[in-house]
Amino acid sequence: QVQLVESGGGLVQAGESLRLSCAASGIMFSIYTMGWYRQAPGKQRDLVATITSAGSTNYADSVKGRFTISRDNAKNTVYLQMDRLKPEDTAVYFCNAHRSFALGHRDYWGQGTQVIVSS
Hints:
This protein is mainly β. It is 0% helix and 58% strand.
């Protein structure tokens, strides 16, 4: 059974920091591209950042220079360090595990963790 469990969300003031964690089980973590997505009320779920099995990273323009994604394959955990938070970062943050195959792909999602940034 695959599980992705996020933690670390909360209520902070603008300019402060948070670190999200996502612990994975039931998958060969090291071969998956891991990502963070977020969904604000009434909006679609958007990409925040991804990190490949080789450690290559990709960020949404809105978070470049403020957020850092990293992974620890020994702990089957991916992190999202969020600095200089803004009210527009308020959303539910979801962890994603993605793997592409020759004939398709597989995605797993966590249950989400709420981040609220007050102004």
